[in-house]
Amino acid sequence: MTDQPAPTKTSVNEGENVSEAVFRNYLRKIEKAYQAGNATEHTYRAALQELLAALFSDITVTNEPKRAKCCAIVSKIGVSRSAQI
């Protein structure tokens, strides 16, 4: 099982590049969550995780990563580079 959220189909408008479409999709998702009126910090994490994974294919994004032995992770979204084989 993976920590990555299920990908969402993002449509690209005429004159818009893929990164813009991905970011527009992210904004739509957080606006929808905000408009529900009961959003917390945690509500927005899945959308952020999906945004980062879509923009940077060579990283793994984990929501609520385990605490590192050396220190606490300031952000609740952990990002690590994928190993290249």
What does this structure look like?
With 85 residues, the protein is α+β, with helices and mostly antiparallel strands. It has one domain (18-81). Helices cover 34% and strands 12% of the residues. The chain contains two helices and two strands. A two-stranded antiparallel sheet has the order 1-2. α1 runs antiparallel to α2 (45-55). The radius of gyration is 15 Å and the shape is flat. The two termini are 21 Å apart. The model has no long low-confidence stretch (mean pLDDT 74).
Stretches where pLDDT is under 50 for at least 5 consecutive residues are: none
Total number of β-strand segments?
A: 2
The number of helical runs is 2
Based on secondary structure, the structural category is alpha+beta
Task: Give the biggest beta sheet.
Answer: 2 strands, antiparallel
Shape: flat
The side-by-side strand order for the widest beta sheet comes to 1-2
Gap between N and C termini: 21 Å
